[in-house]
């Protein structure tokens, strides 16, 4: 009944081919998870022997696997038909069998959990987490990619579909055509320059267009971030929601505004996660789950320096974190936006114009990011404005793999609303 989950003869043929022609081992993509039973040990032994610079044959394998695999099993493998010209076909066959086995195991575990009376949410979470971690990606041929890309372009032209997520900031969207799937966006600045505000402004606009996403708020709590969004969307001065300068009066304008704003935000497909001290692996795992369940289009991480492991001495840990952020964007086919601090070099420089070298621990961030944006609020206005007043602020696009770098000047900044907007 489950014979299609196991391809013993093909496993034997592949291993026999590697023993017959050792060089084929390193020119192929086979891995031990594609083999079953003692054939896993044989595969591992071939790899170990070849990595040590020796030749993998029946003699060296039998010595290496003494007490682990019977000589009769090794002889059966060695005597199997050799098929060095069909390894690509055999790879696909074994890979499909591996995927079926892992999926079968995931769903079988789910059935066992049902029988044992576990909670439905726990069962659902367990099974989906197993499924999304099963690697199914394979290379795409140029023909297939060219045809599918052409059809995608035709569909966009015929139906007026837009490629990227729109930020709602006209000049930024015109220059970048929004943010595209698989891009890593870095928003960096000194404290008080509106990093979190501008990203929350984008999230608000994504929400207006019903684009689902998740934000990992490592610095401030979910409720603090929500209050900021209420100030922005309802044009409510932050002093009322953050300094206790508000009294309850159900018929007053501010309460009507807050009620209406709360209702609007509640309809937006945004998830909030303020778990502290998360590793990048945990963030990646939760984002994968959100992609599976809600097909999220963007991930926000606020901020990079608070990801567990970032402060580890040396550059290796930091490089791994930014690399994983970029991998997350590609793997989930969504936009990943990370916020980052800047060092103090900008304060010593005349003109204060930010540069990529101002990024704290700039090397890996600068390398992995597709787009780097520096919001810059005038220093005199860091603490906010009053009423409906605004100050002029700038956005510096320091890096982009498309579009143009340069400054978008004279943006409106209303600190008391935590809001960036286009100049009227």
Structural account:
With 424 residues, the protein is of the alpha/beta class. The chain folds into two domains: 1-139, DNAb Helicase, Chain A (Orthogonal Bundle); 170-421, Rossmann fold, CATH 3.40.50. Helix content is 47%, strand content 13%. The chain contains 17 helices and nine strands. It has helices at residues 8-20, 23-26, 39-51, 58-64, 71-78, 87-115, 120-132, 142-159, 170-176, 195-208, 222-234, 238-242, 253-266, 280-294, 316-332, 345-348, 362-368, and strands at residues 184-189, 213-217, 270-273, 298-302, 335-341, 371-376, 391-400, 406-414, 419-421. Strands 3-2-4-5-1-6-7-8-9 form a nine-stranded mixed β-sheet, with helices on both faces. Strand 7 and strand 8 (406-414) form a beta hairpin. Helix 1 packs parallel to helix 3 and helix 6 packs antiparallel against helix 7 (120-132). The chain starts with 7 loop residues before the first helix and ends with a strand. The mean pLDDT is 83.
């Amino acid at each position: 009944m489950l014979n299609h989950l196991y391809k013993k003869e093909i496993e034997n043929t592949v291993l026999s081919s590697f023993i017959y022609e050792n060089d084929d081992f390193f020119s192929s993509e086979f891995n031990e998870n594609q083999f079953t039973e003692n054939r896993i040990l044989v595969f591992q032994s071939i790899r170990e022997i070849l990595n040590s610079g020796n030749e993998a044959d029946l003699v060296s394998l039998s010595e290496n696997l003494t007490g682990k695999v019977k000589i009769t099993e090794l002889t059966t493998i060695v005597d199997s038909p050799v098929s060095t010209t069909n390894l690509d076909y055999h790879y696909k066959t074994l890979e499909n069998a591996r995927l079926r086995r892992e999926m079968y195991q995931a769903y079988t575990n789910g059935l066992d959990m049902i029988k044992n009376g576990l909670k439905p949410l726990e069962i659902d979470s367990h099974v989906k987490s197993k499924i999304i971690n099963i690697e199914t990606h394979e290379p795409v041929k140029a023909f297939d990619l060219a045809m599918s890309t052409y059809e995608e372009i035709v569909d966009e032209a015929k139906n007026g579909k837009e490629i990227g997520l729109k930020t709602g900031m006209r000049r930024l969207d015109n220059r970048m055509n929004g943010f595209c799937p698989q891009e890593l966006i870095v928003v960096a600045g000194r404290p008080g320059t509106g990093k979190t505000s501008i990203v929350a402004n984008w999230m608000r606009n994504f929400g207006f267009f019903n684009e689902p996403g998740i934000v990992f708020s490592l610095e401030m709590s979910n409720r603090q971030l929500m209050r900021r969004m209420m100030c922005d969307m309802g044009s409510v001065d932050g002093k009322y929601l953050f300094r206790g300068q508000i009294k309850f009066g159900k018929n007053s304008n501010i309460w009507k505004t807050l009620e209406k704003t709360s209702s609007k935000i509640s309809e937006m497909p945004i998830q909030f996660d303020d778990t502290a001290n998360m590793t990048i692996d945990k963030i990646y795992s939760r984002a994968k789950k959100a992609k599976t369940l809600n097909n999220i289009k963007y991930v926000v991480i606020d901020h990079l320096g608070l990801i567990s492991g970032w402060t580890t001495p040396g550059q290796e840990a930091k490089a791994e974190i930014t690399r994983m952020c970029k991998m997350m964007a590609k793997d989930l086919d969504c936009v990943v936006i990370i916020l980052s601090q800047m060092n103090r070099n900008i304060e010593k420089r005349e003109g204060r114009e930010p540069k990529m070298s101002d990024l704290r621990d700039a090397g890996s961030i600068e390398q992995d990011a597709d787009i780097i944006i520096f919001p810059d609020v005038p220093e005199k206005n860091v603490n906010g404005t009053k009423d409906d007043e605004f100050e002029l602020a700038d956005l510096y696009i320091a890096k982009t793999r498309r579009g143009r770098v340069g400054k978008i000047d004279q943006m409106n900044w209303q600190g008391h609303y935590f809001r960036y907007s286009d100049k009227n």
